[in-house]
């Protein structure tokens, strides 16, 4: 029995490394659910409402995997990072949905900057639940924050270096929890890498920069993660050959934000929507023809 | 002369008719294909029933249910017209008063009905998509080149059902074709199809519903042994399949017709009845309602489809 | 001269037109045509694939308004992605070749006087602030009165003795509301009609069915989008309880939320977006009181309500109350809805008899 379970889905792809640093420093034994497999996805589908988005179904599958193995399960609630930087309403609701569908004890913190609920406050709260002293928590928090900053800088640098390479470059615009998930976006990445395409990921830029840049596509958008994605498009639109949008069905922010972006950008793009019954055969055809369309620029 | 009651269930795929007596015994029944023409199929049905019916009986009540219930209700001048959910529950309860759960998969609809102490406590129907229903099965059977009736036997032969995404008809179809092209054996594909129908049903219609035994499985698809097998396997409960399971809706509506009898006597002679529907589009406003006018022996009896109430 | 129009919802175009025509007396207000099948077809055709249905409805209406000659459209936002409709809709309309401006009064679920002032100046820089404040006050009162009367209608229309008497009287009242002169006149008219409504003869049996309607706000408030659900319930002599109306959203929501949160704290701790958490508390309320059933309606892809649905289901199971879920799409078939509704009444009636 582990003290804490961390589902490898949704929030994990934003905070996973940070959490690991934090809980390592606090000396908590935690279990991260495995890379998504068919069993996990199927269980998620069974538990979740049939109209929920694929990513949320997947998340519930991961919770289901952890439910008998841990004392607590970490389910944060991330609502906003200031007025015009909200998250999707599924991020608001995740905690209450999990709480109603599972019997487990939930370790929860709330990030709602509008209501002055910061990450720091939240982590102190859960540190207390885990019976750690304020001093320990403070140390762990600072340790994790510094490492996170370094990671961010490094990722941004990697992306920038990639942009300078003389290869075919495609920007992948997607939420990391879809993009890096084994059963949602991984196949697409694998396929593109095989074709020797240089992939630039929209989530690996410094959000401070991309968030501001998004204003050039949309003045009013208030979904933080979509803003970061759109900003990435502006950031590198002159240095790339094409864009691939990947979203899960039916993603609420993407349905509007990506549509607006597609109407405004002038480089070739491909829009892929992944559903629980999408088979890779269908995607392959579309990817192949997209690469063919980029045509002469291909370097293989 | 003894009294009897007729119940007609007109579904999208098949038309069912049952005549019961005062003790709810079935004295005549028939099951034919609708073939997209409910009026004609009901005429045919009545001819068959007339042949089967003992001359000592007179019909004292007619009830209609199923998706064409209103139209046929007008045609037969039925004394009761009810939706198929209620009819199914009543029919089943007539023979199985202790039943708790009714699973039903029909031509285009699938439903679950929960019953407690002889009363429906909750029910759910598929969202308006035909995936995982009878019509889906028969179209796939055609694709694989076998009869739908043989489906069950094929499925029972399989040891390794293939996994098929059956959430949506279109996706399932492409998946199925793909699997067939790759070279999976036919029985494994068919078994996979049957299993996916069960999973799809439990994930959609049955979601959040507590399935308590005794469970009965009805509707045209209940004749498919493969689907029954996977229901048993996945629910880990025994599943009752009545030999008259496909007639339950018709029985239920006949029972209701008996309850609502008003002293009229009905005839089964409909062969020469002129029953016509005329469709036209009303251009009165931008609603452009598609109207349907219904004539019985050249007399306008009703018109449907108007949103503003002009007709 | 600016030609202003706005997508409509329920009967609320009457106060909205009233307000705008008094603030901008020199401009033209173009009333949006009633929503019809054509509206949805238009909206669906130009909308992104899996956007929620209100987007499609409002986009369709906007196109119809522009066809009627409008050049400025007013849109308001909510607490979910509704708040972001305006910008994308403007882009879609521009791509279609319409030259128009969309004024988004409320965004991110918030607004303030300065923002409204700035936006109104864009419509007509000579507009009068004092008049605006005065007429806003009257309009908000009008909305409140309409909502009170609607509530009474919902409880009684199923039991009217003369068919159509409530609808007819309501139409009469709304017609008079269009030409109100000042607050006193409004109040008097309201009182007059309230009395008239009380005097309409009804027959309410003790053993009547009572149903609560909860769900996503646009679908609840625009009868076309819910396939006239309330009307068909009334035809079966059912008393209807509905919580959401514009007055609630504008003035009560913030206050009620705290009460709701306390009342249903075992089911939710945080706001789930839009009206989702309100609906969870309302579901508990309906279960604990003598309501026979609950109908939850929403447009397809409404994310906050989808999140609330498993919780609502859980509450209903705990209290053993039946819930009927509807998810309306532009392609929903009317017969399918009817069958499900009919079975729902039958079930409720059988339960009641027992």
In short:
Chain B has 311 residues and is α/β, with parallel strands linked by helices.
Protein described:
The complex is a heterotrimer of chains A (300), B (311) and C (354). By secondary structure, chain A is of the alpha/beta class. Chain A folds into two domains: 2-146, Rossmann fold, CATH 3.40.50; 165-297, Rossmann fold (3-Layer(aba) Sandwich), CATH 3.40.50.11900. Chain A has twelve helices and ten strands. In chain A, helix 1 links the parallel strand 1 (2-6) and strand 2 (30-32). The model of chain A has no long low-confidence stretch (mean pLDDT 90). Chain B is built from nine helices and 13 strands. In chain B, strands 3-2-1-4-5 form a five-stranded mixed beta sheet, with helices on both faces. With 354 residues, chain C is of the alpha/beta class. Chain C contains 14 helices and eight strands. Chains in contact: A-B, A-C, B-C.
Question: What topology, given as strand order, has the largest sheet of chain A?
Answer: 2-1-3-5
Which structural category do the helix and sheet elements of chain C fall into?
A: alpha/beta
Query: What's the assembly state of these chains?
Result: heterotrimer
Q: Outline the low-pLDDT stretches of chain A.
A: none
In DSSP terms (H or I, runs of 4 or more residues), the helix count of chain A works out at 12
Give structural attributes.
A: 300 residues; alpha/beta; Rossmann fold; 4-stranded parallel beta sheet; 51% helix; C: alpha/beta; 3 domains; 11% strand
Mind sketching the topology for me?
The complex is a heterotrimer of chains A (300), B (311) and C (354).
Chain A: E1 2-6, H1 12-26, E2 30-32, H2 38-47, H3 54-66, E3 70-74, E4 77-80, H4 89-101, E5 105-107, E6 110-112, H5 119-129, H6 134-164, E7 169-174, H7 176-179, H8 186-194, E8 198-201, H9 207-213, H10 224-236, E9 242-248, H11 252-264, E10 269-274, H12 280-294
Parallel strand pairs in A: 1-2, 1-3, 3-5, 4-6, 7-8, 7-9, 9-10
Helix pairs in contact in A: 1-6, 2-3, 5-6, 8-12, 9-10
Chain B: E1 2-10, E2 14-21, E3 26-33, H1 38-52, E4 57-65, H2 69-76, E5 80-81, H3 84-95, E6 101-105, E7 110-116, E8 119-125, H4 134-144, H5 151-157, H6 169-182, H7 186-204, E9 215-218, H8 225-235, E10 239-240, H9 248-259, E11 275-281, E12 290-296, E13 299-304
Parallel strand pairs in B: 1-4, 4-5, 6-9, 9-10
Antiparallel strand pairs in B: 1-2, 2-3, 6-7, 7-8, 11-12, 12-13
Helix pairs in contact in B: 3-9, 5-7, 5-8, 7-8
Chain C: E1 3-5, H1 13-23, E2 28-29, H2 37-46, H3 53-67, E3 72-75, H4 85-95, E4 101-104, H5 113-123, H6 129-156, H7 165-177, H8 182-199, E5 209-215, H9 217-221, H10 229-235, E6 238-242, H11 246-263, H12 276-288, E7 293-299, H13 303-319, E8 323-328, H14 334-353
Parallel strand pairs in C: 1-2, 1-3, 3-4, 5-6, 5-7, 7-8
Helix pairs in contact in C: 1-6, 2-3, 6-8, 7-8, 11-12, 12-13
């Amino acid at each position: 029995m582990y003290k804490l379970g961390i589902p490898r889905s949704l929030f994990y792809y934003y905070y996973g490394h940070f959490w690991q640093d934090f809980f390592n420093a606090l000396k908590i034994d935690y279990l991260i659910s495995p890379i998504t497999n068919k069993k996990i996805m199927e269980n998620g589908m069974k538990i979740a409402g049939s109209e929920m988005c694929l990513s949320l179904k997947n998340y519930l599958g991961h919770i289901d995997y952890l439910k008998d193995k841990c004392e607590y399960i970490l389910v944060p609630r991330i609502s906003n990072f200031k007025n015009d930087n909200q998250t999707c309403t599924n991020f608001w609701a995740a905690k209450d949905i999990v709480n109603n569908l599972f019997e487990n004890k939930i370790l929860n913190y709330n990030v709602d900057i509008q209501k002055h609920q910061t990450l720091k406050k939240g982590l102190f709260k859960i540190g207390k639940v885990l019976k750690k002293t304020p001093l320990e928590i403070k140390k762990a928090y600072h340790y994790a924050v510094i490492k996170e900053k370094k990671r961010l800088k490094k990722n941004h640098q990697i992306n920038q270096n990639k942009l300078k390479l003389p290869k075919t470059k495609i920007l992948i615009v997607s939420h990391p929890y879809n993009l890096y998930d084994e059963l949602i976006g991984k196949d697409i990445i694998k396929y593109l890498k095989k074709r020797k395409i240089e992939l630039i990921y929209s989530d690996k830029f410094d959000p401070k920069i991309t968030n501001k840049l998004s204003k050039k596509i949309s003045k009013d958008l208030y979904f933080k993660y979509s803003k970061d994605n759109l900003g990435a498009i502006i950031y590198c639109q002159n240095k790339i050959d094409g864009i691939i949008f990947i979203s899960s069905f039916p993603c609420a922010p993407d349905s509007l934000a990506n549509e607006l972006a597609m109407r405004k950008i002038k480089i070739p793009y491909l829009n892929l929507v992944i559903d629980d019954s999408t088979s890779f055969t269908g995607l392959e055809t579309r990817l192949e023809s997209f690469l063919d369309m980029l045509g002469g620029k291909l370097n293989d | 002369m003894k009294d009897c009651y007729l119940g007609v269930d007109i579904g999208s795929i098949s038309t069912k008719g049952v005549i019961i007596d005062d003790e709810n015994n079935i004295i005549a029944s028939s099951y034919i294909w609708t073939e997209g023409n409910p009026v004609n199929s009901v005429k045919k049905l009545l001819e068959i029933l007339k042949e089967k019916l003992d001359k000592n009986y007179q019909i004292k009540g007619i009830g209609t249910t199923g998706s064409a219930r209103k139209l046929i209700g007008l045609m037969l001048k039925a004394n009761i017209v009810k939706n198929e959910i209620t009819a199914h529950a009543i029919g089943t309860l007539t023979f199985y008063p202790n039943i708790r759960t009714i699973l039903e998969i029909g031509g285009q609809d699938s439903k679950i009905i929960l019953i407690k102490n002889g009363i429906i406590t909750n029910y759910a129907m598929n969202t308006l998509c035909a995936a995982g229903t009878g019509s889906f099965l028969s179209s796939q059977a055609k694709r694989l080149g076998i009869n739908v009736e043989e489906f069950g036997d094929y499925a029972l032969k399989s040891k390794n059902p293939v996994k098929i995404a059956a959430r949506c008809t279109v996706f399932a179809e492409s998946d199925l074709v793909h699997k067939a092209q790759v070279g999976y054996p036919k029985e494994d594909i068919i078994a996979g199809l049957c299993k996916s129908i069960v999973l799809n049903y439990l994930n959609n219609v049955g979601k959040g519903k507590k399935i308590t035994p005794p469970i009965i499985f009805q509707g045209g698809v209940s004749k498919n042994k493969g689907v029954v097998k996977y229901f048993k396997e996945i629910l880990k409960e025994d599943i009752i399949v009545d030999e008259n399971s496909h007639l339950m809706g018709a029985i239920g509506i006949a029972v209701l017709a008996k309850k609502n009898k008003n002293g009229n006597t009905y005839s089964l002679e409909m062969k020469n009845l002129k029953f016509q529907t005329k469709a036209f589009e009303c251009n009165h406003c931008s609603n452009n309602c598609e109207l349907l006018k219904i004539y019985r022996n050249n007399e306008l009896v009703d018109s449907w489809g108007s949103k503003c109430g002009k007709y | 001269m600016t030609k202003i129009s706005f997508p409509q919802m329920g009967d609320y175009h009457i106060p909205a037109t009233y307000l705008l025509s008094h603030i901008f007396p020199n401009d033209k207000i173009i009333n949006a045509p009633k929503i019809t099948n054509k509206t949805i077809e238009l909206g669906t055709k130009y909308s992104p694939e899996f956007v929620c249905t209100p987007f499609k409805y409002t986009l369709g209406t906007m196109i119809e308004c522009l066809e009627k000659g409008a050049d400025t459209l007013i849109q308001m936002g909510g607490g979910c992605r509704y708040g972001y409709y305006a910008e994308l809709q403007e882009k879609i309309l521009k791509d279609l070749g319409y030259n128009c401006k969309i004024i988004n009064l409320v965004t991110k679920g918030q607004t303030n006087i300065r923002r409204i002032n700035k936006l109104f100046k864009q419509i007509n820089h000579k507009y009068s602030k004092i008049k605006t404040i005065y007429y806003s006050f009257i309009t908000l009162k009008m909305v409140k009165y309409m909502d009170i009367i609607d509530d009474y209608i919902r409880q009684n229309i199923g039991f009217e003795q003369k068919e159509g008497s409530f609808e007819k009287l309501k139409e009469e009242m709304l017609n008079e509301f269009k030409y109100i002169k000042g607050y006193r006149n409004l109040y008097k008219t309201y009182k007059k009609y309230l009395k008239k409504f009380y005097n309409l003869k009804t027959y309410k049996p003790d053993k009547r069915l009572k149903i609560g309607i909860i769900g996503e706000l646009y679908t609840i408030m625009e009868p076309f989008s819910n396939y006239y659900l309330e009307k068909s319930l009334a035809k079966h002599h059912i008393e209807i309880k509905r919580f959401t109306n514009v007055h609630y959203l504008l003035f009560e929501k913030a206050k009620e939320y705290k009460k709701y949160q306390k009342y249903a704290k075992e089911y939710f701790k945080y706001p789930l977006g839009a009206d989702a958490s309100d609906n969870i508390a309302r579901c508990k309320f309906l279960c604990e009181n003598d309501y026979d059933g609950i109908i939850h309606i929403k447009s397809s892809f409404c994310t906050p309500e989808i999140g609330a649905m498993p919780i609502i289901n859980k509450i209903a199971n705990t209290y053993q109350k039946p819930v009927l879920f509807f998810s309306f799409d532009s392609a929903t078939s009317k017969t399918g809805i009817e069958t499900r509704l009919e079975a729902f009444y039958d079930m409720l009636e059988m339960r009641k008899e027992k």
